[in-house]
Amino acid sequence: MAEAVVRLAGIRKAYNVGTPAEAEVLHGIDVALEKGDLCALMGPSGSGKSTLLNIVGLLDRPTSGQLSIDGRESSGLDDRALTELRGRSIGFVFQYHHLIPAFTALENVMMPMLVDRGRPDDAMRERAESLLESVGLTQWKDNLATNMSGGQQQRVAVARALAMNPALILADEPTGNLDTKSAQGVFDLLREVNRMRGTTLLIVTHNHELAAQCGRIVEIVDGRLTSDRRIHQEKRSTA
Amino acid sequence: MRNGLPFEWIASSRFLLEGRMQSVAILAGVSIGVGVIIFMSAALAGMQANFIRRVLSAQAHIVLLPPQEVARPLRERSAEAAIVQKPYQRVRSIDQWQKTMKEVGAMAAVSAVSPMASGPVLAVRGVASRAVTAMGVDPDLYYRIVPLPEKIVAGRARLNVDDIIIGTDLANDLGVSVGDKIVVTSGAGAGATLTISGIVDLGTKGANQRNTYVALHTAQALLGLVGGVSSIDVTVQDVYAAERIAQAIAAAQGVEADSWILTNAQFFSAVNAQIVANTTIRFFVGLAIAFGIAAVLIVSVVQKSKEIGILRAMGASRGQILRVFLLQGAVLGLLGSLAGSALGGAAIYLWQTFVRNPDGTPLFPMEQDPRLFAAAAVLATLTGLAAAVAPAMRGARLDPVVAIRG
Question: pTM of whole model > 0.80?
Answer without folding.
Answer: no
